[in-house]
Amino acid sequence: MRIAPIALALSLALAAAPSHASDGFNPFVSANPDGFSWDGFYLGAHGGYGWFTTTWPSGHSTTDRGELFGGHGGYNHMVGRFLLGAEIDLSSATINEWSRFSDQVSLLTSARVRAGVTHDRYLLFATAGIGAARISQARFTGAKQSETHVGWVAGGGLEVMLTDFLSLRGEYLHYQLPYKTYNLGLGNFRYGGNVDLVRGGLSVHF
C-alpha cells in the first residue's frame, strides 16, 4: 500500500518546515536580513574641523575656523535593515578668530536621534536634535563675555563596522544657533550664527 510512504513523506516535510509557533515568531522582531545586527549601546571618540559663520549688525559676514575633539555615546535598535537610535556628544573646540575683537566657539554638545538603513556592516544615516555651543567674545582691552547658545542641529554620515565591536564613521553636522545680546563696553550688539562640522570617529559597541 502507498499510505506508509505518503505518511513518511508528510512527516519528513513537517519536520523540515520552520515552526513559527514554536519559535515564538513576531513580525516586528529586530532581525537584520543581512545577518549582522547593529543593536546595542556604544561609546566612542571623534575629531574634526569646524567653521562658525555669523552675520554682524552691519550686514557683513565673518567665518572662524578650527579643530574639535570629543566623545559620544548612544544606542541603536534594528528593525529589519532600518536603524533607529539616539546619541549624545560633547566636543572641545578651538574655532576662533583674532583681531581687535576675538571670538571663539569653545564647546559644542548635542542630543540627537539617528535613523538610517544598513547593508551588512555599512550604515547610512541621518540625524537631528538639539544642539548647543559655548561662544565667547572679547576685546583687546580685556572685556569678555561668554554665552551658551541653544538651537538645533542636523546632519548625516556613513559608518562601517570594522569588527564585531569596533566601528568607524564620517559625518557632517550643522548647528543653527540663535543670536544673543553681548556688550563689551561699546553698547549692545546681537551675536550668533551657525557652526558646520566635518568629523570622523571610532566607536566601541557592547
Describe what this molecule looks like in 3D:
- With 206 residues, the protein is mainly beta.
- It has a single domain, classed as Porin.
- It is built from two helices and eight strands.
- A hairpin with a 4-residue loop joins strand 7 (166-183) and strand 8.
- It is elongated and about 65 Å long.
- The chain starts with a helix and ends with a strand.
- The model is unreliable at 1-31 (pLDDT under 50).
Question: Strands, helices and their partners?
Answer:
Layout: H1 3-16, H2 20-23, E1 40-55, E2 61-79, E3 82-98, E4 101-119, E5 122-139, E6 144-161, E7 166-183, E8 188-205
Antiparallel strand pairs: 1-2, 1-8, 2-3, 3-4, 4-5, 5-6, 6-7, 7-8
At a glance:
With 206 residues, the protein is mainly beta.
- The SSE order reads HHEEEEEEEE
Round the mean pLDDT to the nearest integer and report it. Answer: 82
CATH architecture: Beta Barrel
CATH topology term: Porin
Any low-confidence stretches, pLDDT <50, length ≥5? 1-31
Total DSSP E strands: 8
CATH class: Mainly Beta
Give a quick account of the main beta sheet: strands, pairing sense, barrel closure: 8 strands, antiparallel, barrel
C-alpha end-to-end distance: 59 Å
State which percent range the strand residues make up.
Answer: over 45%
Task: Please give the share of residues in helix.
Answer: under 10%
Shape: elongated
The quaternary structure here is: single chain
How many domains in all? 1
Strand line-up across the major sheet:
1-2-3-4-5-6-7-8
- List the total number of helices: 2
Rg calculated over all Cα atoms: 26 Å
Would you tell me the structural class of the helices and strands? mainly beta
